[in-house]
TrEMBL record:
Organism (species): Halorubrum salipaludis
A GO cellular-component term linked to this record: plasma membrane
Family to which the UniProt record says this protein belongs: Belongs to the binding-protein-dependent transport system permease family.
Transmembrane segments: 43-62, 126-145, 151-173, 194-221, 283-299, 311-328
Xref: PROSITE patterns: ABC_TM1
Localization: Cell membrane
GO MF term set: ABC-type phosphonate transporter activity
One Pfam entry name: BPD_transp_1
Protein name, per record: Phosphonate ABC transporter, permease protein PhnE
Membrane topology classification: Multi-pass membrane protein
Comp. bias regions, Low complexity: 1-15
Amino acid sequence: MTTDTTTSDGTVGSDAVDDEGSDVPNRIAEQFENIRQTRRRRALGWTGLLAFLAFATVQAFAATELLNPDARLETFTDSLTGFFPITRHFGVIPFLDFGQYVAFIRQENLLYDPEIGGLLFQFPPNLADIYAFFFLELGIFQIFGEAGITLAMGFVGTVLGFPFALVFGTLGSERVTPFPFNFIFRGTMSFIRAIPAIIWTLIFIPFLGLGPASAAIAIAFDTIGNLGRLFVDELEEIEDGPIEAMRTTGASKPQIVFFGMLSQVRTAFIAWTLYIFEINVRIGVTVGVIGAGGLGYVLTSQQNLLRFTEMMATLLAIFLLIISVELFSQRLRSRLRSDDVEMGIWELIAGFPRRMADSMLK
């Protein structure tokens, strides 16, 4: 900005003073200084956080006794021979003896019960035995032996827990039930989630005894807490457009909930239910460790007898069960997505090496 000034002798002069121009460099310098100070504070903050995490990690290792000099690597490596039996062919070449695993799996009926399966797999077929298999022995799960018991615990827990999770999850959403009444249902699910499934099993043992029944009810309770929470989160993210459209047409609150809200999350609800079913089968193994039956009970029995080869065989059976459930769940979930190419189970398994190679080449 230019200003005119009058001197003492009456002449007029001009002082070219650009206030704004002179302030620009100062403001730029001030901004750069603020940026540098912000970066210094962030660097100090990250340094302090990393130092704290390192300190906490050392403390955690000490609390778990991993810093104990008695926890030696040699002890761990020596114990591996008990889990992995080695047979030397020609007295020189070492091979892992899978035959011992297979023999124990067949002996204990971990994956297949020949007595129940004999009713179904026979030639020529016997209609009386087939009827007995489905309606007298109820052998759809029992045919898989101990793995079938574990699978049944996860399945029953999912089936019993799903309707309660749907009700609690729907009523726990603030879109359906206003605050603070929705917190009653949220708080109930939080209380259920705070107690692990294995503790729920211990709670139900005095009522149902130590066995698969207590485990199945415990898994059902765990399903209510976990699956209900997932349902609440899905309902919180739905679009408002269909809901507002139904309100303008005079729809009632139940109609809005069923046709305006739940219709938007139907596919997500089914996918989350299948995911929880996978988790429940794993929980079935966990609760079996305390005596609820199934593969978990066989695992802890062999561990108590220090029969580590048989224990490893049981772990192999658990892996086969879990991977089978995941493949089945994946096929169902993929059919819910219209953009996925449908593949059969055999194509999914046989084509895995090719898909892996294609993925690595991308």
